[in-house]
């Protein structure tokens, strides 16, 4: 019996290692550029490069200067493949100047060189010729003003010809996911949609942005219930204008699709740092993990991804996090942020539209990826004041600009990247429980008969769940709130996976799953408050 138990343990451990080390590619199922194919034929697939980080231009030095870069590269490597978006509100406020000294108030060729070096060090190719990490490079596109007289098509062209093209010559051009045109035009252009559409056609033309893919519309929405978003008479910025926007942009976007495909992008925040007279926006761990805010995410992703596909495009949630206006202290920088982030990635990959229950249980509609945003705590150009509360990766605010470090939300990205990204068979799963609120569950399959179930307890109470498995044993990896004082759960200051943390140099020491027995294709787990687990099994074990 001891010999059989040891063999089962070895099998489960090897299975867990196999899942982490040998992901399945979209290329195995489709022809053509793998990521482009994955956009249009989802079929319950989570593509490679799903995970991503979004970083303001004003922080390029903080994450990617020669002192910071080694640890940041390790943090990217832990995630294996992804998309690094450089943009946000700063892209409409910072001019590109090929001859200016490099500061955090201007975009220079040195910034582009830092980005190129980071992508190179994160990995040349993923085994099939694709870059392991690609970059979205945002450029200004907004009405010019007294403080920004430089904004215009010529500035965008200069950014491409004197900045992007020299830094990404030859094969390195494959690392460019796209040139992102402006940030949140629903704010910068306001009610002047016609002016925005005219500028979009001008900037998207190859005469301005050259041969690179272009990304639009990069819209945001006010933080609203899905029922308000669904009301065509409600004031929802550009939410209902996507058909007209993509009618203008898609003809320029489709022909220039690169290794990562042509896609439309969107932003989403469930809460805001401030919420005067708007209680729906008020931040708390309970609100963050509520079903109603995830329903709004589902509605936005399902609606806009469907519209994107109708125009021959993919869809990416290219900027998101826990709360707008740089996050909320005690909500965005604690363990609940990781619990939310893991759930949000699954909801983006497979949105369940609240107005059409059951319409997407096969997960044929959804985002091809998601980027969590990182910024300064208060204002651009003041990184020494500290990190935004919602950052997944914290930069060094000191003058030394040393190693970035993993914040709680990063652990959700790590768990998702290593066990869900680049898999097929995505489905929501029903699990039985003794809890008042049922934990959320999702299944994915990897290779052969291998099978995984993610279970997420989004409450402040323990929950016991019965999980479907294959075979007689399973490996269980847990993402758990961690408080060294032992008093906090959802508001714990740290997160651990299998009791382990990311090292100061950005390296991940590896997973250390527990082993459980199964009977009748079921196993029972107890999840702590805010805890998530990945149950890995195979019929051959």
Compact description:
With 541 residues, the chain is an alpha/beta fold.
Explain how this protein is built.
The chain has 15 helices and 22 strands. With 541 residues, the protein is α/β, with parallel strands linked by helices. Helix 5 links the parallel strand 2 and strand 3. Helix 4 crosses helix 5, helix 5 packs across helix 6 and helix 14 packs parallel to helix 15. It starts with a helix and ends with a strand.
β-strand number? 22
Number of helices: 15
- Pick out the low-confidence regions: 1-43
**Multimeric status of the protein:** single chain
Secondary-structure-derived class: alpha/beta
Strands side by side in the biggest sheet: 1-2-3-4-5-6-8-10
Shape verdict = globular
Largest sheet: 8 strands, parallel, barrel
Give the radius of gyration.
Answer: 22 Å
Sheet-strand content, in percent, reads: 15-25%
Fraction of residues in helices? 25-40%
List the SSEs and their pairings.
Blueprint lengths: L1 H20 L12 H7 L10 E5 L4 H5 L4 H10 L3 E5 L22 H14 L10 E7 L13 H15 L8 E6 L3 H4 L4 H12 L1 H4 L4 E6 L6 H4 L12 H12 L9 E6 L2 E2 L12 H4 L2 H20 L3 E7 L2 E2 L10 H15 L20 E5 L18 E2 L10 E2 L1 H12 L4 E5 L3 E2 L6 E6 L4 E7 L6 E6 L4 E10 L11 E4 L16 E4 L4 E6 L4 E7 L3
Parallel strand pairs: 1-2, 1-10, 2-3, 3-4, 4-5, 5-6, 6-8, 7-9, 8-10
Antiparallel strand pairs: 11-12, 13-15, 14-17, 15-16, 16-22, 17-21, 18-19, 18-20, 18-22
Helix pairs in contact: 4-5, 5-6, 8-11, 14-15
């Amino acid at each position: 019996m001891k010999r059989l138990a040891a063999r089962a343990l070895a099998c489960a451990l090897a299975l867990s290692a196999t899942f982490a080390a040998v992901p399945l590619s979209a290329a195995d199922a489709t022809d053509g550029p793998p990521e482009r194919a994955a956009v249009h034929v989802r079929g319950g697939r989570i593509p490679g490069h799903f995970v991503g980080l979004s970083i303001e231009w004003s922080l390029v030095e903080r994450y990617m200067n020669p002192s910071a870069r080694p640890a940041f590269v390790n943090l990217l490597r832990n995630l294996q493949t992804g998309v690094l978006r450089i943009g946000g509100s700063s892209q409409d406020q910072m001019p590109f100047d090929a001859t200016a000294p490099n500061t955090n108030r201007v975009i220079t060729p040195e910034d582009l060189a830092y980005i190129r070096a980071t992508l190179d060090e994160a990995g040349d190719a993923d085994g099939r010729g694709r870059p392991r990490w690609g970059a979205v490079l945002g450029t200004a596109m907004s009405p010019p003003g007294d403080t920004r007289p430089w904004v215009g098509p010529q500035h965008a062209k200069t950014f491409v010809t004197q900045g992007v093209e020299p830094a990404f010559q030859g094969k390195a051009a494959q690392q460019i996911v796209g040139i992102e045109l402006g940030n949140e035009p629903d704010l910068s252009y306001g009610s002047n949609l016609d002016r925005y559409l005219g500028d979009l056609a001008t900037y998207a033309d190859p005469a301005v942005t050259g041969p690179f893919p272009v990304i639009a519309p990069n819209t945001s929405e006010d933080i609203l219930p899905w029922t308000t978003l669904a009301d065509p008479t409600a004031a929802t910025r550009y939410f209902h204008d996507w058909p007209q926007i993509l009618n203008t942009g898609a003809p320029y976007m489709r022909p220039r699709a690169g290794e990562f495909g042509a896609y439309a992008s969107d932003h989403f925040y469930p809460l805001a740092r401030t919420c005067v007279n708007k209680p729906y926006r008020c931040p708390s761990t309970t609100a963050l993990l509520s079903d109603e805010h995830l329903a709004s995410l589902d509605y936005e992703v399902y609606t806009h991804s469907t519209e994107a596909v109708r125009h021959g495009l993919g869809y990416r949630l290219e900027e998101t996090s826990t709360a707008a206006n740089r996050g909320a202290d005690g909500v965005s920088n604690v363990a609940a942020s990781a619990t939310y982030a893991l759930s949000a990635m699954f909801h983006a990959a497979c949105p369940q539209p609240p107005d059409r229950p059951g319409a997407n249980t096969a997960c044929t509609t959804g985002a091809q990826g998601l980027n969590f945003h990182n910024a300064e705590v208060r204002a651009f150009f003041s990184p020494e004041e500290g990190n935004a509360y919602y950052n997944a990766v914290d930069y060094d605010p000191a003058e030394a600009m040393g190693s970035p470090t993993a914040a709680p939300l990063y652990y959700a990205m790590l768990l998702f990247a290593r066990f869900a990204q680049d898999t097929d068979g995505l489905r929501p799963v029903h699990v039985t429980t003794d809890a008042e609120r049922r934990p959320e569950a999702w299944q994915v399959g990897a290779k052969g008969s291998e099978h995984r179930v993610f279970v997420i307890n989004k409450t402040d109470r323990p929950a016991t769940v019965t999980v479907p498995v294959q075979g007689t044993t399973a490996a269980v990896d847990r993402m758990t709130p961690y408080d060294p004082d032992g008093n906090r759960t959802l508001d714990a200051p740290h997160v651990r996976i299998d009791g382990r943390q990311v090292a100061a140099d950005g390296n991940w020491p590896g997973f250390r799953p527990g082993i459980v027995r199964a009977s009748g294709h079921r196993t029972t787990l107890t999840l702590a408050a805010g805890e998530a687990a990945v149950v890995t099994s195979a019929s051959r074990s």
